[in-house]
Amino acid sequence: MKKMRFVTDSLNYMSHDEIVQHQETKLLKQMKYVYNNSEFYREKFNENGVHPQEIRSIEDFRKLPIMMDKDQERKSQQESMERYGHPFGMHLSCSPDDVVLTATTSGTTGVPTFTYTLAQSDQDNISTAVAHMLEYGRITAGDRLLFNHALGVYATSAAIPGIRHAGVLPIDVDVRAGTSEILRYAQLTKPNAAMMTPSLAEHLIQKAPELIGKTVGELNLSALYTVGEIAIGIPEVKKKIEDAYGCRVYDWIAPTAGTVAFSCDSDDYHGMHCVTPDFDLYPYDLVDPDTKQALEIKDGVIGEAIYTSLDRKAVPMLRMASGDIVQVFTNECPGCGFKGYRVKVVGRSDDMLIVKGVNVYPSAIKKVINNFTPHVTGEMRIVLNDAPPRVTPPLVVKMEHGLNIDTNDLQNLEEKIKYALKHQVRMTPEIIWCAPGTLEKSMGKTPLFEKNYN
User: Fold this and answer.
1) 3-state class of 145 per DSSP?
2) The AMP-dependent synthetase/ligase domain covers which part of the protein (predicted)?
3) Residue 111 clears pLDDT 90, i.e. is over it
4) Is the distance from CB of 208 to CB of 214 less than 8 angstroms?
5) Contact at 8 Å (CB) between 294 and 304?
6) Of 152, 55, 53, 146, whose CA–CA distance to 112 is shortest?
7) Do 279 and 187 have their domain in common?
8) How confident is the model at residue 58 (pLDDT cuts 50, 70, 90)?
9) By residue range, what is the domain housing residue 445?
10) Cβ atoms of 149 and 197 closer than 8 Å
11) Distances from the Cα of 178 to the Cαs of 11, 238, 264, 270, 433, in angstroms?
12) Strands 272-274, 358-360: parallel, antiparallel or unpaired by DSSP?
């Protein structure tokens, strides 16, 4: 198995304490920079009655209140539009003329935010990290990569310069072009690798024989990189995709284009390895999702990830509440021996449901359901008749039964699934059975909810 390393080579020769000291040095420099260059952050520090020079360590810094969340980011954007005519926010810490790339979040929880706004040095950092990730998967100069995400002002667009930086040719087919076009260009260009969501990867498994008369395995990919959904962390989904494509699938994440993390070559999933601890404090800063109080960082801890840029020129994030609930692993990776931190995404705080006082994440339900494949397909929707998070029991879950299952056996299967959910997730749902293929899979992120409310 290939050994995973940090992107910045010098970190590979440092102890954990030395890496933390290096982070602290960069943090102090970043705080001074934003204090001097951003009216937004200068006001935040002044409101908290503290000057950046008074903060001496990461632990001191983690005692500060949350400085930004999505709502504040949107307000910051609105103010910068009104005052200065640009959408990058009052937290922009350089001239708008220095911005070389901007991309937004999906906007699924509100107005899109220009979180992925990069100056040249920011783009160079992320490009170096993306190239490092490709090289780990043995995708190098001269190779071709089928890039199937929404193109334009979208977060994943920030990865394309990194692909080019690696000397790899991106075959960028906008996911909105449709399944036929994606498969057509895959046949024409014969890529060595591909990037897409897990939902699209599974969709192509089903559609390729019908549309091109070949399986996805006959595309002969050497590596597949998936992002945007909790899927590869589910053993049954990982195995299904890897078996179909005949190559390793790498789960990756690049939150706010500040850090990069990806999974290793292990057959088992051990989380995404954070290879850029000098770019962002992620995941060294976790808080309780409800109280926003800092949590002790130890192996297996679960909390809300807080973003803090350590080397960002354009729109640095300082103590930004992400809404991402993650589990952090501090021990050496049992698969590849990586000594840095690893993360598994648990879910989004705004996806969390409360059923009879129990906090329930859709990803936890999906993991249990996938244990019953092939008796189920793994596709599911949680039916919400009222706005979350509180759900009037029972929670209703639609799920597809397997292709060859006898419908007379569904009652027995349903009892087994309910028993598993009761003991593993602490809730017993009402199950509505659906025929295979009737819960449509998205070309991007497949929705978790069926919302029947305004």
Assistant:
1) strand
2) 62-304
3) no
4) yes
5) no
6) 152
7) yes
8) very high
9) 353-451
10) yes
11) 42, 24, 30, 33, 28
12) unpaired
* Structure-token pair, residue 275: 């290879």
- The number of domains in the chain is 2
Q: Which two tokens stand for residue 188?
A: 């024409």
Q: Same domain, yes or no, for 320 and 362?
A: no
* Tokens found for residue 34: 């934003």
- SS3 (DSSP) at 10: helix
* DSSP string for residues in 272-320: EEE--TTTB-TTS-EE-TTT-PBPP--TTEEEEEEE-BSS-SSS--SSE
CB atoms within 10 A of CB 189: 14
Burial label for 435, CB within 10 Å (0-12, 13-18, 19+), is: exposed
- Averaged confidence pLDDT in the chain: 94
CB 104 within 8 A of CB 113: yes
Q: Which amino acid is at 67?
A: M
CA separation for the pair 18, 6 (Å, rounded): 14
332 and 208 both lie in a single domain: yes
* 258 Cα distance to chain centroid: 12
The pTM assigned to this predicted structure is 0.91
Contact 155, 115 (CB under 8 A): yes
Match 């901007």 to its residue by tokens. 102
Alpha-helical (H) ranges within 116-275 are 120-136, 160-165, 179-189, 198-212, 235-245
Residue tagged 């021996």 (tokens): 337
C-alpha span between 105 and 153 (Å, rounded): 9
Same domain, yes or no: 234 and 221:
yes
Give 48-51's long-range contacts (Cβ < 8 A, gap of 24+): none
Q: Concatenate the DSSP letters of all residues of 43-107 into one string.
A: HHHHHTT--GGG--SHHHHHTSPP-B-HHHHHHHHHHHHHHHS-SS-TT--S-GGGEEEEEB---
pLDDT (0 to 100) of residue 108: 56
Angle at which helices 235-245 and 198-212 cross, to 10°:
40
Give me the amino acid identity at 59: E
Tens of pLDDT, residues 255-292: 886 899 999 999 999 999 999 999 999 999 999 998 99
* 3-class DSSP state of 13: helix
For residue 197, give the nearest of 240, 145, 251, 235 by alpha carbon: 251
- Are 342 and 360 in a shared domain? no
Report d(CA 172, CA 79) in Å as an integer: 34
Short-list 372, 438, 432, CA closest to 405: 372
CA dihedral (349, 80, 154, 284) positive or negative: negative
The residue ranges of DSSP E strands in 295-339, in sequence order, are 301-307, 320-329
What are the Cα distances from residue 270, in Å, to 200, 286, 405? 23, 19, 32
